[in-house]
């Protein structure tokens, strides 16, 4: 009898060991299956900036500084003029619709004499933004200067011909003006117009435009993501930056960009899940948890997030693998609801279900969900809040004021407020 009990114990132990070994092999296979390298084409994320707010900031900067450059009058035939110098004053800069991956600035320069404005010189400046990476952030930088202009079209205002003729007549002594043929004045006005769009423009390019480009340099700090490349599109209403990450995103954004007065940051559901995994890998989120859900470096359990758009009922997947002290695996599926109530991010877990379980003892997987999913969504909010627009030395401060799960996308609205203005100053560039 005693011998038989020993045999039964050995058999039971062998069966348990075999089961444990089989389970460990299966858990190891599931863990390996979570490792993916394929990257879906973008965009994985997107930033939409309303141009109205950016142009308000540009206008305030230009009106504060009052940049100007003196312009000597050219030789105008035999005319003797009382005025020998004009001044070019930067009056307006605004962003306009542009070709792909270009930023277009419309610049208005006022030409005046000592008494009154004469006409305006309109410049359409087109530049290619540069993606600048630092240890802290990735930024798209666009500013114009003598060496960075891709296309410039200087044009005088529609009433420039009449205005220049009247100015020339005002500058002449009356005794000459009353006896001078109009044809002579007309030719002088044409020569002055050609000077303003030619020689004078080249002077402005090296002086006024250089300083104006520095003053209005645009820097868009992008969300805190591992960005591989960007694509820029500018319409009359918005500047949209599409982001492709280095993450193994299954599917990018599918819907059109939204419009409104707030900056919008969107991530595909898969990009948000992979951002959570990326944050876990780098220690921005806890990497391991104990059985009772305390984050600890020596915890047994590690989470992995996924998003499957083809599962319409429960696209969010949370995989929990025990990779220390045993062999357990759980897969939980759910739908996600996200809202921002005041400054508090609220996450709702809908239709949650333990879809797969392979463990020797039951684990209350539902206890994991709220904290883990909340942390992963908050990681996306922090990434979105990283977005900021700076023009010159002034920043549009951003605050997350909205959050939602819209279809298969996680969307955040960022309210923008400009830093306080300073007292206007005048700067003469020579």
Gap between N and C termini: 110 Å
How large a portion of the residues is in β-strands, by DSSP E?
35-45%
Mean pLDDT: 85
Please give the radius of gyration in angstroms: 33 Å
Count of extended strands: 21
Structural class: alpha+beta
Query: What pattern of helices and strands is seen along the backbone?
Result: HEHEEEEEEEEHHHHHEEEEHEEEEHEEEE
Which strand order do you get reading across the main beta sheet? 6-7-10-18-19-20-13-1-12-11
Overall 3D form: rod-shaped
Reported for the largest beta sheet, the result is: 10 strands, antiparallel
What does this 3D model show about the protein?
It is a single chain. With 430 residues, the protein is of the alpha+beta class. The chain has a domain at 51-219. The chain is built from nine helices and 21 strands. It has helices spanning 2-33, 51-65, 160-171, 174-177, 182-197, 199-206, 208-215, 269-281, 366-385, and strands at 45-50, 67-72, 85-96, 103-112, 117-127, 130-133, 138-142, 151-152, 155-156, 218-221, 227-234, 238-245, 263-268, 301-307, 316-322, 328-341, 344-358, 388-391, 394-406, 409-418, 427-428. It has a ten-stranded antiparallel β-sheet. Strands 2, 3, 4, 5, 8, 9 and 21 form a seven-stranded mixed β-sheet that branches. Helix 3 packs across helix 5 (182-197) and helix 8 (269-281) crosses helix 9. The longest helix is centred in the N-terminal third of the chain and has 32 residues, at 2-33.
């Amino acid at each position: 009898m005693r011998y038989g009990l020993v045999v039964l114990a050995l058999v039971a132990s062998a069966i348990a060991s075999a089961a444990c070994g089989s389970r460990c092999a299966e858990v190891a296979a599931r863990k390996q299956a979570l490792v993916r390298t394929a990257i879906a084409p973008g965009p994985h994320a997107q930033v939409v900036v309303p141009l109205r707010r950016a142009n308000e900031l540009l206008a305030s900067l230009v009106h504060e500084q009052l940049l100007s450059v003196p312009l000597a009058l050219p030789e105008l035939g035999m005319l003797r003029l009382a005025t020998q110098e004009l001044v070019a004053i930067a009056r307006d800069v605004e962003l306009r619709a542009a070709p792909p991956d270009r930023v277009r600035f419309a610049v208005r320069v006022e030409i005046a004499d000592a008494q009154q404005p004469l006409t305006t010189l309109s410049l359409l400046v087109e530049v290619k933004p540069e993606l600048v990476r630092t240890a802290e952030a990735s930024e798209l930088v666009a500013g114009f200067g003598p060496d960075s202009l891709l296309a410039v079209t200087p044009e005088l205002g529609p009433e420039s011909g009449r205005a220049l003729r009247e100015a020339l007549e005002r500058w002449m002594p009356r005794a000459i003006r009353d006896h001078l043929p109009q044809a002579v004045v007309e030719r002088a006005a044409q020569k002055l117009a050609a000077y303003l769009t030619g020689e004078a423009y080249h002077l402005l390019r090296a002086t006024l435009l250089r300083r104006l480009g520095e003053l209005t340099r645009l820097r868009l700090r992008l969300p805190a993501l591992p960005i591989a490349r960007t694509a820029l599109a500018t319409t009359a209403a918005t500047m949209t930056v599409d982001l492709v990450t280095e993450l193994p995103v299954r599917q990018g954004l599918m819907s059109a960009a939204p419009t409104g007065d707030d900056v919008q940051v969107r991530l595909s559901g898969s990009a948000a899940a992979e951002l959570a995994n990326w944050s876990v890998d780098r220690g921005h989120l806890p990497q391991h948890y104990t059985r009772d859900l305390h984050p600890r470096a020596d915890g047994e359990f590690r989470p992995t997030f996924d998003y499957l758009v083809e599962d319409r009922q429960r696209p969010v997947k949370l995989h929990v693998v025990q990779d220390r002290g045993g062999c357990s695996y759980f897969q939980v599926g759910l739908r996600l609801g996200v809202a921002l109530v005041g400054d508090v991010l609220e996450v709702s877990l809908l239709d949650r279900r333990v879809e797969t379980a392979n463990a020797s003892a039951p684990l209350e997987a539902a206890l994991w969900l709220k904290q883990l999913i909340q942390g992963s969504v908050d990681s996306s909010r922090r990434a979105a809040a990283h977005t900021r627009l700076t023009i010159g030395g002034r920043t549009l401060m951003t605050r997350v004021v909205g959050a939602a799960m819209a279809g298969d996308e996680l969307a955040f609205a960022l309210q923008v407020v400009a830093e306080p203005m300073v007292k206007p100053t005048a700067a003469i560039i020579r």
